[in-house]
Design goal:
With about 260 residues, the chain is mainly alpha-helical. Helices cover about 40% and strands about 10% of the residues.
């Protein structure tokens, strides 16, 4: 996946990425990013995959008995039930941010793996940290492309997400910078087998005014992501589209200016 990100950056379809600092491919990602001036690199705060950088006993509410992070579903449920320590979230976020700086990278922004920072407890931690470090954050807004009607289950998830985002934005509005929109190919509902320029046009035409992030997950070969995510096949399709160099022309046609979070 690291190679695919650099591929698509060089073709102009990607301007920004985020880094997991507690996984096997971290050092490879850092080396490639350092050879790619102009690529914005943020911190991908990760509390649902692998092991923490903090000692497991110091972040006990974030990990299982083996010292691995809980799954997204388990952690989300625990946060809603008040079973997650705010101090432990702060400790692990600080550890991951400092690890990135120790690797020689200055984070352009902060987002999170699987959008876990949308949950109010985690959002308050990330937002306060962003204010202290003067670093923007990503808001995982819901995009509604014209003519797309998600299935009922997804609409319910979107409604819950919107409630959390409304609370988060009210509480932190004006205190730090974030994007005003976010969209990805998944907002089309069923992801097409063949990605075309019309699909990305639909997403970009639905973008609100301001700073819009078009989120992509490119991978050269779907098998690279085996065991890590269920979207490997879609990631390969997205890499193939981004390598066609058609996205930058579409963005220019629609009046977008490409940048990364560090340039806000």
């Amino acid at each position: 996946m690291n190679d695919a990100i650099i591929d698509t950056f060089e073709k102009g379809g990607v301007t920004s990425t985020t880094l997991m600092v507690n996984v096997a491919a971290t050092e490879d990602a850092v080396a490639k990013a350092k050879r790619s001036p102009g690529l914005g690199v943020g911190l991908h705060f990760n509390i649902t995959f692998g092991r923490p950088l903090s000692s497991p006993d110091s972040v006990a509410t974030l990990v299982d008995e083996a010292g691995h992070f809980h799954s997204r579903g388990t952690l989300a449920r625990n946060m809603l039930l008040g079973r997650v320590s705010k101090a432990e979230l702060e400790r692990e976020l600080s550890a991951q941010f400092e690890q990135m700086r120790q690797l020689g990278m200055s984070p352009t922004h902060i987002d999170s793996h699987q959008h876990l920072h949308a949950f109010p407890l985690c959002f308050d931690v990330v937002a306060a940290f962003g204010v202290a470090q003067r670093v923007p954050i990503r808001m995982p807004w819901v995009l509604r492309p014209k003519g797309v009607r998600p299935p009922v289950a997804k609409r319910l998830k979107h409604s819950a997400l919107n409630l959390m985002l409304a609370r988060n934005s009210r509480r932190w509005n004006g205190l730090l910078d974030w994007n005003t929109g976010l969209g990805s190919i998944f907002d089309l509902g069923n992801v097409p087998q063949q990605l075309e320029i019309a699909h990305y046009r639909l997403l970009l035409e639905a973008a609100p005014t301001g700073i819009f992030e078009l989120m992509v997950h490119p991978a050269r070969v779907a098998a690279e992501l085996g065991g890590l995510t269920r979207i490997g096949d879609i990631s390969e399709r997205e890499w193939r589209f981004l390598m066609s160099e058609r996205l930058p022309a579409l963005m220019k046609e629609l009046g977008f200016t490409s940048m990364h979070y560090g340039e806000l």
